[in-house]
Amino acid sequence: MSFASPWWLVALLVWVVLELRARLRPTAAIAFPRQRIAAAVAPSWRRRLATLPRWCVRVAIAVALLALARPRIAVGEDVESRSGVDLMLVLDVSSTMRSRGSFDAPRFDVVRDVVERFVAERGDDRVGLMTFAKYGRLICPLTYDHEALARRLETVTPVAENSAEDLTAIGVALATAVTRLQADDGRTKVVVLLTDGQNNVEDIDPIDAAAFAKAHGIRVHTVLAGSGRAAARQLAAIARITGGSAHTAADPRALSRVYAEIDAIESTGAVVRRYPVFVEATAACAVFACVLLAAAVALDVLWMRRAP
């Protein structure tokens, strides 16, 4: 048994101590001239149980104080199974993601569909979503609600061509993702970064961002949605530094295969957590206290025949 509000037990203890002190005080007595006369008077059951109503009241007060402490009884346990992986999906939304290239549809539309299927297959993993062009933006924090993440992903579109934000800041995006993931809670941390080009913002070098990820034990898997030797080399270096994997996908089928490979790489055994399940006995204690008080009144009025 445990108590949700244990401080009321202090009040119960104080009340018990006060009652014991009152019981130990000397009480008034009537002197009989002869002890044999007093002993010869046979006590009735009413006399023998004269203190019963008072004891009912005392016990009722104690039980009421116990009810205020909210006693809980463990009746079992709830088992929760989680895979223990935190995945941050980082997607390029520069204007070139609107183009088709070797894809049979706008590149970002294909990426959105593949990522949605990937998230749906991750089961109990916590998954978050970031996008980047010149700046990194958190679209959805880490969550078990994958449907909510998919709804947020549906609202994402690439930036306008030649706008002030139409750049590819891979280093900034990766460093931001690591910052979001670096809490030390014992869970595996993974970034899956997708882009169709190489970094062209000098604020944070992608290699420095990769070193930052490695320092926090975060793996980075990179995906090049298209082609380009310079971009492929840069992404491969990021993956190598962090202990992740580098992939290139030039068409929708290849992109689906890449995310399936990442899904297989990051498959881990489940982490099982057990939580005790309690049933509160507060109501039962309150009812019992009321019954005792009613019994005390009934005994006093109906059997002891004492006026209230």
Commentary on this structure:
It is a single chain. The protein is of the alpha/beta class and 308 residues long. It folds into 2 domains: 2-24 and 43-76 and 275-303, no CATH class; 84-269, Rossmann fold, CATH 3.40.50. The protein has 11 helices and 9 strands. The strands form 2 sheets. A 6-stranded mixed β-sheet has the order 5-4-3-6-7-8, sandwiched between helices. The longest helix is centred in the last third of the chain and has 22 residues, at 282-303. It is rod-shaped. The model has no long low-confidence stretch (mean pLDDT 83).
- Give the distance, in angstroms, between the N- and C-terminal Cα atoms: 38 Å
What's the count of strands? 9
- Uncertain parts: none
Instruction: Supply the number of helical segments.
Output: 11
Structural class: alpha/beta
| Helix and strand sequence | EHHHHEEHEEHHEHEHEHEH
What is the fold named in CATH at topology level of the largest domain? Rossmann fold
- Rg from C-alpha positions? 36 Å
Name of the level-1 CATH class of the largest domain: Alpha Beta
Mean pLDDT score: 83
Strand content: 15-25%
